[in-house]
Amino acid sequence: MLRDQQLSAPATQSLTDRVRAANVARMNSAHSSNDRIDTAPDGALANADVLYVELGAYEGPLDLLLELARRQKVDMSRISVLALAEQYLGFIDTVRDKRIEVAADYLVMAAWLVYLKSRLMVPQTTNDDEPSGEMLAAVLQFRLKRLEAMRKAATRLLDRPQRGRDVFARGAPEPIAIVRRALWEADLFGLLKAYASQRERTAPADYQPIHRTVWSLQEARAILQTLIGDTAEWVPLEVYLGRHVGSAAERVTALASTFASSLELVRQGQLDVQQSLPFGPLLLRRKARDGGAS
Amino acid sequence: MTRARDDTERDDNLERNLRIVEAVLFASAEPLSAAEIAPYLDPQAQPDALLAQLQRRYAGRGVNLVRRGSRWAFRTAEDLSFILKRESLEARPLSRAALETLSIIAYHQPATRAEIEEVRGVSTGKGTLDILMETGWVRMRGRRRTPGRPVTYGTTEAFLDHFGLEALADLPGLEDLKGAGLLSARLPPGMQVPLPFDGPLREDEEPLDPDDPGLEESPEEDRNA
Amino acid sequence: MTRARDDTERDDNLERNLRIVEAVLFASAEPLSAAEIAPYLDPQAQPDALLAQLQRRYAGRGVNLVRRGSRWAFRTAEDLSFILKRESLEARPLSRAALETLSIIAYHQPATRAEIEEVRGVSTGKGTLDILMETGWVRMRGRRRTPGRPVTYGTTEAFLDHFGLEALADLPGLEDLKGAGLLSARLPPGMQVPLPFDGPLREDEEPLDPDDPGLEESPEEDRNA
């Protein structure tokens, strides 16, 4: 969609700007008077009936105006802006008569051209603040010339030798290989540690396992049963063991095994065990047959 | 005698550096700048002088050393185009709108979208600029220091490379257009006729934010532009 | 005069054809045979002769015209291959196996692979020794004068340099290792740390053959070592 602001831009410019534009446009027309505007392709476009059918083919009103201007087959700077405006308006009218939808931007341009026409036909009065018709015409001419110039420039650009079509880069570029080089990291401490630990690991060492006397649960149970006998009194476990076990090293395993066995005997209902405070002496006695104490 | 030997040595060095510049540029399909070539050369070598000498050496050969903006590349000679010509590999030729937009950007850069639209008299779809950016020929340069901070567009060195231009000054018909005052983006043309400019940012431009690209299509800009 | 003109014409033609060969080869992604180039040339041109002449022209340049089978292509001169490489350094810690092997070579040198394995108690992969050779800290000294003639390994000056040692004698001995807490005090009394030796070949070593290196990993040696 075309923005209104854009098309109406020339009309809202300050007067001095417009005068300058007109001057430059006039200057330019002197410059390029030899420059014949390419004529539009004949055939399809020469026929006005076809023209409006192809309204969709135009990229906006400026494009259409440029096409109409080219059909005048004269230098753009000598083009009759008045005739151009009339052609455009006539064209839009025809299209509207045929009830073909016309986009708003074409109508905005039409309105502006009507205004331009009125300024061109009414003689300029001296105290008129409005821009003169000549200035407006010059602005329109400038815009048409500039668009035309850019079209030509695009064509000339395309006519240049293009890479991949006319001019070629190296077909087999040689890629840059990235060689990864390791910067090895190791320090002296690590080196010495590695050496020492290996030597230690593989050093032939005399190894004598320490043999410990271990009371099996079976043994402990047998001994416990023997020791307790038929005593019905509470006797500390330590006392039983003290009688039986000699060395201090043996006492630990004896205590552990005996205690475990005592629990088993309790479970079987052969023994009562009692401890009055944490880590206090463990008291044992044979369980009374009548099931008294527990 | 010492002088003679010095000379020989210098010649040897020169030849060696020339060979290196030759090899580096031959190896790469894309143009390279003097700065990109320098690391391969002697520290005291002068890449620019070497490039100029190599360019003379290859003038008139089947392969020429050509300048593309600030970069250099070997390319087949233009006059052999009629022998080497290949059907364009482009899957999709550029639309008329895209071509027109491209030439407006090329001749009017730095140009904002609003300025492009003013020349064309129609609004430019986002797709058109996207396609041009995709070709690698057009880039966002910065933002114009005006309300709305519109993005300014310009061409790239790949554009110069594709169309065989040494610099923007080689754009076809540039002088005529300049003379005719047709290079002014906005009406009226000011006192000076601007020339397309793809150098660093101008005074009225400011750099893009690093995460900018998405912003340019914001409706605010369109309204302000 | 006619002859002179003929000559000039022939020269022009030759030069023209040379330019075409040059451009066609440059632009081609694959090496091309004379037959593939011929269609671009004058009917009476001799592609083989042109190629030979072009090859002479490019000899000694940064880019050479080389033959690949029956086809031809431009390639960067071999002595400039460094241009096509870029080194990227990356710090990598030495693996434990490599560090252990290195330490054994350091202390026990000259040491064969079998001797290293004896100290380590595990076999040492070829990769480990390769890495150590790559570090530049280990070298092959010679061959042991024993059956199988196993290679003896030793450390280099780069090794001393890297680990900040003035000489191998600076490697701490048994007592120092114990003192530093690296060796426990509970070691068999017979254990010794050898005095490393990186001097010239010993009596039981013989020099490597110039073309030796590849041999050392032969299975025979492994078996004999």
UniProtKB/TrEMBL annotation, chain A:
A Pfam short name: SMC_ScpA
InterPro entries in the record: ScpA
Name the UniProt record assigns to this protein: Segregation and condensation protein A
Organism, scientific name: Devosia enhydra
Lineage top rank: taxon: Bacteria
Automatic annotation (TrEMBL), chains B, C:
Region feature (Disordered): 187-225
The UniProt record lists the keyword Cytoplasm: yes
Entry keyword annotation includes Ribosomal protein: no
Chain ranges passing through the membrane: none
Segments of skewed composition (Acidic residues): 203-225
Pfam families named in the record: SMC_ScpB (PF04079)
Key words, A-Z: Cell cycle, Cell division, Chromosome partition, Cytoplasm
SUPFAM superfamilies: Winged helix' DNA-binding domain
GO biological process: cell division; chromosome separation
Signal peptide: none
Name of protein: Condensin subunit ScpB
Organism placement in taxonomy: Bacteria, Pseudomonadati, Pseudomonadota, Alphaproteobacteria, Hyphomicrobiales
